[in-house]
């Protein structure tokens, strides 16, 4: 079966790798049938991706973990014109129309980079008369939502590479809506609402995408050697992994006195998202002298290595390689 | 610091890493705290092969836990809920909130008393000051 994934129009170059990663993680066979056929550069990708999956369950599973996708539809037809689209709908789904005779339903036209008047939308709805939907129309919570998706040439693309804009879409899809992605969690994970952050906390959406691409899942151990305020750990823990982190500067995860209620300040974030059970530990260490045992302990490492001005490079050791004698006070090393 | 973390870390000093005495690090004057966490059997099953069982027995002993079986539970034993729950309690729910963690080789204590709940492996790693970052103004 073919399905239409509607992607979020951001982080374009990560969208397909993320879908692929989620498929790998969940053991779903995913074949991309059509994506980005029109765009000439990566920045001009359209938000539609047609994929081939085994069944509806696979489609629902795939979307249930994708952060950069918005929703998924069962593809009933596609075409560059409405004649082509209707022919394709006939060919793909004719034998299934009877199943939908009596369901409550809604029809919608969704245009990307274009628009349709209400009258024109009505005309489009009526052109699908042959589906023979006899059930009640219900706009809110219908049994089945059918959506016509139109893809136009966007002004961004027209300006960038000179594609001519047209009042007609260049691609039309028709599908039965299945499920939406958990993209909403970005709103609860956003740094604006997070209890403890630092100057270099990673953006919530990108952290979640990173955790997805690293295949974070329940039962796994994830590690961040540059943990800071723990933004990557929160994302990996959200997906069920157990996480630990280290940082050369413990002040980052420990927090100032007023930020620590009980335990380190970073733990506040885990409490906020109710994932304290997914947190293992954080310790102070230099990644070039890591105390982690030299065997396979971890399922994944996700991190945002330090660079730039706000958090520059810091490692242990002296520039000239001299060993500094430890300071001993009353026979106890003062470190 | 959780018991599972203690099983994952050795002394950070490079010379110690080659010595068998640097692992496990030994707890002294440890004060424990039990924390209730969600039981995740799949995690215990997944992580148990990576746990160094002999060291875990030493650590458990030092922390005053009843002695663990001599061999690591494997195969069917991993389906017994009680075994997994006991391990969950030891590995994840038991936290050392105060005490010393000492390397058996160099005698250094990567854990300071008592300013943090987290072991600090930095200062004795090479026993040197940190490189000052170069200040650049754009």
From TrEMBL, chain A:
<dbReference type="GO" id="GO:0043527">
    <property type="term" value="C:tRNA methyltransferase complex"/>
</dbReference>
<keyword id="KW-0489">Methyltransferase</keyword>
<keyword id="KW-0694">RNA-binding</keyword>
<feature type="domain" description="tRNA (guanine(10)-N(2))-methyltransferase TRMT11 N-terminal">
    <location>
        <begin position="1"/>
        <end position="183"/>
    </location>
</feature>
<keyword id="KW-0963">Cytoplasm</keyword>
<dbReference type="InterPro" id="IPR002052">
    <property type="entry name" value="DNA_methylase_N6_adenine_CS"/>
</dbReference>
<dbReference type="InterPro" id="IPR029063">
    <property type="entry name" value="SAM-dependent_MTases_sf"/>
</dbReference>
<protein>
    <recommendedName>
        <fullName>tRNA (guanine(10)-N(2))-methyltransferase</fullName>
        <ecNumber>2.1.1.214</ecNumber>
    </recommendedName>
</protein>
<comment type="similarity">
    <text>Belongs to the class I-like SAM-binding methyltransferase superfamily. TRM11 methyltransferase family.</text>
</comment>
<feature type="domain" description="Ribosomal RNA large subunit methyltransferase K/L-like methyltransferase">
    <location>
        <begin position="193"/>
        <end position="310"/>
    </location>
</feature>
<keyword id="KW-0819">tRNA processing</keyword>
<dbReference type="GO" id="GO:0032259">
    <property type="term" value="P:methylation"/>
</dbReference>
<keyword id="KW-0949">S-adenosyl-L-methionine</keyword>
<keyword id="KW-0820">tRNA-binding</keyword>
<dbReference type="GO" id="GO:0008033">
    <property type="term" value="P:tRNA processing"/>
</dbReference>
<dbReference type="GO" id="GO:0160102">
    <property type="term" value="F:tRNA (guanine(10)-N2)-methyltransferase activity"/>
</dbReference>
<dbReference type="InterPro" id="IPR016691">
    <property type="entry name" value="TRMT11"/>
</dbReference>
<dbReference type="GO" id="GO:0005737">
    <property type="term" value="C:cytoplasm"/>
</dbReference>
<dbReference type="InterPro" id="IPR059073">
    <property type="entry name" value="TRMT11_N"/>
</dbReference>
<dbReference type="Pfam" id="PF25904">
    <property type="entry name" value="Tmrp11_N"/>
</dbReference>
<dbReference type="Pfam" id="PF01170">
    <property type="entry name" value="UPF0020"/>
</dbReference>
<dbReference type="InterPro" id="IPR000241">
    <property type="entry name" value="RlmKL-like_Mtase"/>
</dbReference>
TrEMBL record, chain B:
<protein>
    <submittedName>
        <fullName>Multifunctional methyltransferase subunit trm112</fullName>
    </submittedName>
</protein>
<keyword id="KW-0489">Methyltransferase</keyword>
<feature type="region of interest" description="Disordered">
    <location>
        <begin position="118"/>
        <end position="138"/>
    </location>
</feature>
<dbReference type="GO" id="GO:0008168">
    <property type="term" value="F:methyltransferase activity"/>
</dbReference>
<dbReference type="GO" id="GO:0046982">
    <property type="term" value="F:protein heterodimerization activity"/>
</dbReference>
<dbReference type="GO" id="GO:0070476">
    <property type="term" value="P:rRNA (guanine-N7)-methylation"/>
</dbReference>
<dbReference type="GO" id="GO:0030488">
    <property type="term" value="P:tRNA methylation"/>
</dbReference>
<feature type="compositionally biased region" description="Basic residues">
    <location>
        <begin position="129"/>
        <end position="138"/>
    </location>
</feature>
<dbReference type="InterPro" id="IPR039127">
    <property type="entry name" value="Trm112"/>
</dbReference>
<keyword id="KW-0808">Transferase</keyword>
């Amino acid at each position: 079966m073919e399905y239409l994934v509607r992607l979020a129009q951001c982080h374009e170059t990560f969208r397909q790798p993320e879908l692929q990663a989620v498929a790998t993680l969940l053991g779903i066979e995913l074949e991309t049938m059509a994506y980005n056929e029109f765009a000439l550069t990566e920045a001009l990708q359209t938000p539609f991706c047609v994929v081939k999956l085994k069944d509806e369950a696979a489609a629902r599973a795939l979307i249930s973990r994708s952060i950069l996708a918005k929703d998924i539809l069962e593809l009933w037809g596609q075409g560059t014109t409405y004649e082509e689209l209707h022919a394709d709908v006939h060919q793909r789904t004719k034998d299934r129309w009877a199943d939908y005779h009596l369901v409550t339903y809604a029809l919608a036209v969704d245009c990307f980079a274009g628009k349709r008047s209400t009258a024109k939308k009505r005309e489009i709805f009526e052109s699908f008369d042959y589906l023979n939907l006899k059930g009640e129309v219900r706009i809110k919570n219908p049994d089945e939502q059918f959506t016509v998706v139109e893809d136009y040439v966007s002004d961004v693309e027209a300006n960038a590479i000179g594609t001519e804009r047209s009042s007609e879409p260049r691609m039309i899809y028709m599908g039965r809506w299945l499920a939406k992605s958990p993209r909403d969690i970005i709103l609860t994970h956003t740094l604006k609402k997070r209890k403890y952050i630092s100057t270099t906390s990673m953006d919530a959406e990108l952290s979640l995408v990173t955790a997805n691409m690293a295949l974070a899942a329940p039962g796994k151990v994830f590690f961040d050697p540059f943990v800071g305020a723990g933004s990557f750990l929160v994302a990996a823990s959200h997906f069920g992994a157990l996480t630990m982190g280290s940082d050369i500067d413990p002040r980052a995860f420990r927090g100032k006195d007023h930020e620590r209620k009980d335990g380190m300040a970073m733990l506040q974030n885990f409490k906020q998202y109710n994932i304290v059970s997914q947190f293992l530990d954080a310790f102070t260490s230099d990644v070039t002298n890591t105390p982690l045992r030299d065997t396979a302990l971890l399922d994944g490492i996700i991190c945002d290595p330090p660079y730039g001005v706000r958090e520059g490079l810091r490692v242990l050791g002296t520039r000239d390689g001299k060993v500094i004698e430890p300071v001993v006070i009353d026979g106890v090393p003062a470190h | 610091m959780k018991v599972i973390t203690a099983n994952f870390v050795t002394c950070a000093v490079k010379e110690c890493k080659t010595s068998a005495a640097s692992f496990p690090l030994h707890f002294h004057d440890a004060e424990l705290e039990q924390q209730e966490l969600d039981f995740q059997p799949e995690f215990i099953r997944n992580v148990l092969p990576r746990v160094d069982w002999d060291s875990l027995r030493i650590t458990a002993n030092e922390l005053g836990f009843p002695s663990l079986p001599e061999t690591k539970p494997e195969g069917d034993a991993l389906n017994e809920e009680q075994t997994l729950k006991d391990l969950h309690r030891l590995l994840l729910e038991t936290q050392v909130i105060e005490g010393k963690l000492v390397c058996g080789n160099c005698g250094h204590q990567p854990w300071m008393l008592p300013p943090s709940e987290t072991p600090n492996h930095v200062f004795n790693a090479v026993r040197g000051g940190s490189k000052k970052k170069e200040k650049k103004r754009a």
